[in-house]
Design a protein that fits this description.
single chain, alpha+beta, Alpha-D-Glucose-1,6-Bisphosphate, Chain A, domain 3, two-stranded antiparallel sheet, two-stranded parallel ribbon, 3 helices
């Protein structure tokens, strides 16, 4: 099954549709979009859900391989904290 986004974003079951390969595909698409719009730096964080840190690392690796400066959170962080880090 393919990657499908709804009004709440991407909802999928881990190891079925939500896999490291699919996370990398979404991250690559996002990197290409940001690159086309002069993006150079990204902040990547994660929440306490199962394997979140591992998926965040995959996202960070994809962005780094696209020559982005990547700031990867060293621990679980909230969306408001990520927003503040991105703004800074």
């Amino acid at each position: 099954m393919g990657i499908k986004f709804g009004t709440d974003g991407w909802r999928a079951v881990i190891a079925e549709e939500f896999t490291f390969d699919n996370v990398a595909k979404v991250a690559q698409a996002h990197a290409e979009h940001l690159k086309a719009n002069n993006g150079k730096k990204v902040v990547v964080g994660y929440d306490p859900r199962f394997m979140s840190e591992d998926f965040a690392s995959t996202v960070a690796e994809v962005f780094a391989s696209n020559d982005f400066e990547v700031i990867l959170s060293s621990k679980v962080c909230s969306t408001p904290a990520l927003s503040l880090m991105a703004k800074e």
